Amino acid sequence: MENFKAPEEAQDKLHFLDYWRVIRIRKAIIFTVFCIVLLSSAIFTNFMPEKYRSFARMDVQKDKTDVNLMDQPSFGQGFDPYWMQTQFEIIESTSVLYPVIEELKLRERFGEKYGDGAPMKLDLTYRLLSGLISLSQTRNTSIIRVSAVTYDSALSSEIANAVVDKYTEYRSQLLNSASTRGLDALREKELQSQKEIEDLNSTIEQMKKDNNIVDLSGDSYLDVYDESPEVIRQLAQDKIREEKNYERTKSLYEQFLSIKEDPKALRDLIESVDPDQRLTTMLLGLDEAQLQLVINKTRFTENHPDVRTTEAAIAQLNSQIGLKINSILEGWRVKLEEAKSALEITNNALDSYKDVKQSKDTNYRDYELAKRELNRKQRVLDAIRLKINSEEINKAIPRNSEVQIIDRAEPDNKAVSPSWSLNLVLGGIIGLSIGIGLAFFIEYLDTSVKTIDDVERALQAPVLGVIPQNVGSIIDEGPDSPHAEAYRVLRTNLLFSRKDKTKNTFSVVSGGAGEGKSTTLFNLATIFAQNNERVLVVDSDLRRPSIHKILGISNSLGLTNYLLGQNVLEEVIQTTQIPTLDILPSGKLPSSSMGILNSPQMKELVEILSKRYDYVFFDSPPIMGISDASVLASLVGYTVQVIQYRKYPQAMTIRAKQLVQKISNNLAGVVLNNINMSQDSDYYYYSGYYYDYYYSRNEDSDPTAKSKNGKPTSSVKPNSRSEKPGSVSDIKQKY
């Protein structure tokens, strides 16, 4: 049993029956709240003032004329999903309701009814009147229903009729004033447009004069020739050409300067780039003179006249060639300056023409835009004049009545409020909802043990038995009572839970007082005794003994007398009407012997009793806060924990179980006590089946047999069995 594990998968799943169980258990709370709310609704309805409703109906159409003007669609044609809602807002506005208040003198009438007799403020009267009227639209029609609900049927009809009348007047005034205001605005716009056109004409004429613009056509086309684009294109081409010439001249000149120190390379470059006939002739003469010098040096000595003459000629030619090259370089420098100057001139001319072109384009564009704006304003003016003529004709044509009153309000002497049926139904629904919600909230706050699953999940211990509510002494009820069967189930489970069959001493403990452990222990011992087992019940609850009260015997001598050595065992044990059941009362507890259970004499007594009886049951005080229960749990073979249904929090029962395991680890299981079988159908199968089976059997055999409480009972008398060895007289003789 120590390794018992509750199934964890099912504990998180809630069934509809779980909710129904909560409702059944808390049905008293639900019924009480339901009755309170229902009664409150009835009282509130009884004191509510009576109200009367009157309503008027009117057909509301969009504005339209009697004649379809200028083949245009009439006003009001087409569906507008927001138009009717807009009319609702207008009817509830101050523009309509303020005149109603003044006409019916509602400030004075409401002041007498709801105030101290003085006229009510206008804004308060408006808010009150807005709450008294309601608007609705008849489906798929343009009919509006105006309802008024007040304390007076006549006043309700007056308000409804006044609202439709003032709305009709408002629509007529709105139409006339809107038409007049529209015409005034159009005429003002016409004058403004005329002045703008005149000013713009003056501006255009001034632009033509200032920029020499010739506009022969009178429209947006200008009769003007402009040569600027051709000149700009030509200058752009000249600029490109001058840039190329300048770059080429600059490059050659820089090459000439870079090889100026190399006459031979310079002469070659000049001949290839800019051939000069004279330079070529001098270069040929220089070559011939150098060749002649070589020939003369081979024939003559260095100082020979021919050699010197040739050398002089060569020097003269080099001098002439150098001068010529310098002259050519100077010419190229001049060419570079000329190319640069030509490029600058071309750039300046191009920029100048571009500025001129831009200025002309700006002037032409401004003139063009002004002409277009003039045409646009002229068209606007024509449209305004056409609209003015149309509105004047439209205003002169008679119109249909856009609001037609269909039904006028009549006083109704039958009150529409309060509605008893509606208020009681709503009160019942609200009361039932609040009651159910309160029941589930209380159930949520209730952390006590409610189901077997709670025990198995929280305590990790098996449930040995489930005891019904209002169980008394099994001796009085008889061995065949349905309550006795619950204890037989407990006895069977307890015997099967024992691992050591030699241990026959049991202690029944509980976490708190009043959980029914003493009754459970006594009835369990009675069931054992009725099975021809020699059983002894020891009342070990020295502070609040109760076993002797169940049997109605004396408690003057008992356990304490034996432990203190005042009496022997035979003197303190008492017999019962069941031959195999004996009782050892607690006796009187002296104040100086509070810890008497934790003594060697008590341990010795447990051993003696376990040998003399088949089973020994020790009643104990609550284990929480009292040490006697812990001492008894450590002395006996097995301990059974009693938990009363829905009494103490789960934390307390868990702590009690932990104390037992900490002391002796001999917890056999848990007993759920005081279960209300009529409310908790989950526990019905523990004892209800036997109850139905047993009494249906007895009704068939002896229908007239009745118990003292009116229920069928067995024809077999309690304890009606043959005497066997081991009866009361035999036990006393043994002692």
Give your account of this protein's structure.
The protein is of the alpha/beta class and 735 residues long. The chain folds into 3 domains: 10-47 and 418-445, no CATH class; 228-396; 452-734, P-loop containing nucleotide triphosphate hydrolases (Rossmann fold, 3-Layer(aba) Sandwich), CATH 3.40.50. Helix content is 58%, strand content 10%. The chain is built from 24 helices and 12 strands. Strands 5-12-11-6-10-7-9-8 form an 8-stranded mixed beta sheet, with helices on both faces. A 4-stranded antiparallel beta sheet has the order 2-3-1-4. Helix 4 packs across helix 6 (122-132). The two termini are 37 Å apart.
Oligomeric composition of the shown chains: single chain
Note the beta-strand portion. 5-15%
Q: Any idea what the shape is?
A: flat
Give the radius of gyration.
63 Å
What value does the average pLDDT take? 77
Number of domains: 3
What's the arrangement of strands in the largest beta sheet? 5-12-11-6-10-7-9-8
Distance between the termini: 37 Å
Structural class by secondary-structure content:
alpha/beta
